[in-house]
Amino acid sequence: MEDGVEEQTAKEYVGNEQRFSVRTDLALEARELVGDERSEISGVRYSVRREGDYEVTISVVEVLNEEGEKAMGKPKGRYVTLECPELKENILEAHQEVMEILTRELRRMIPLKDDTKTLVIGLGNRQVTADALGPLAVSGLLVTRHLYAVAPHELKDRIRPVSAIAPGVMGQTGVETGELVAGLTDKVKPDVVIAIDALASRRTSRVNTTIQIADTGINPGAGVGNFRQELSSKTLGVPVIAIGVPTVVDAATIVSDTIEYLQDTMKAQGGIQMHIFQNFSEQEKYQLIQEVLKPNIGDLYVTPKDMDAVAQRLGNVIAGALNMVLHHLEPEELKEYLY
């Protein structure tokens, strides 16, 4: 298309009442939509570093005030994202490295005392492979609330009262998950709730390679446009820490990434340079692709073919980090109690 036509199309599209929006649960990606890595965003603090043999990228996005909330579309709080391409592979050394970094970052975020009572919620549907992360992670936790009162003194000093549940989804129970969690929180009276859930990403490269933790709670299903009751300090009355991994992307993301990769490859090889969407912003490009695809394929979300094995490994990484955070036990001791 000619430049003038492209510019007009973009402007007309943006004014189309925002019928389509970029689907992502990651604060890092929300920031990317607002500006690049070097951009200063009012009310938002951003930092990035790399650590370890596998060069795990650790990005920290802090939404500081209402101005930052408006710019990001995310509630005020701290969001930490770990990225490691080897996380989706069966590389034990990489998993161990990510687990150690995740353990450290969780300790910084979760307010823990020696007797802190923790309730861990494994959100999602165990029978749907791409949504089974929460239940899989919960199944690897050392739960001790039922033992804490009768534990011998030497052990009691090394464990905390931890309870955990995978409540399923509303389609299985007929009850809003937020209502179940609120009722359980009211009965168990934990000092902190940790919610684990599968997320959606706007980058195919981040699927199964990224872990986000946040102290703001979580809106289950938000990334795929299926908004459920939020789990947060506002709704539960206690701090809520969210842990998530993007396990799906939508079709528009795949098309957008494919066009971008194709353009980069052709440019690198000195071939014909394509100028598709050259006058479009990232969000405008995505939304136009989504508008074209939606009448033909609807809301299509895609997950890798080996998601079942990857989900189990990711669940083990998250469970391992939480066990280290919530108890004063060495990894070998944890194995004895778990198996």
TrEMBL record:
Q: What is the superkingdom listed in this entry's lineage?
A: Bacteria
Q: Which UniProt keywords apply?
A: Hydrolase, Protease, Zymogen
Q: Which Gene3D superfamilies match?
A: HybD-like
**GO terms for MF:** metalloendopeptidase activity
PTM details?
Autoproteolytically processed. The inactive tetrameric zymogen termed p46 autoprocesses to a smaller form termed p41, which is active only during spore germination.
Q: Which InterPro entries match?
A: Pept_HybD-like_dom_sf (IPR023430), Peptidase_A25 (IPR005080)
The catalytic activity, as recorded, is: Endopeptidase action with P4 Glu or Asp, P1 preferably Glu > Asp, P1' hydrophobic and P2' Ala
Q: What is its EC number?
A: 3.4.24.78
Q: Which GO terms describe its biological process?
A: proteolysis; spore germination
Q: Mark which residues the record calls propeptide.
A: 1-25
- Report the Pfam families cross-referenced here: Peptidase_A25
Broad enzyme group? hydrolase
**Does the keyword Protease belong to this entry?**
yes
Subunit comment? Homotetramer.
- What HAMAP family does the database record attribute to this sequence? Germination_prot
What is the stated purpose of this protein? Initiates the rapid degradation of small, acid-soluble proteins during spore germination.
Q: Which family does it belong to?
A: Belongs to the peptidase A25 family.
Q: What is this protein called?
A: Germination protease
Native source organism of the sequence: Bianquea renquensis
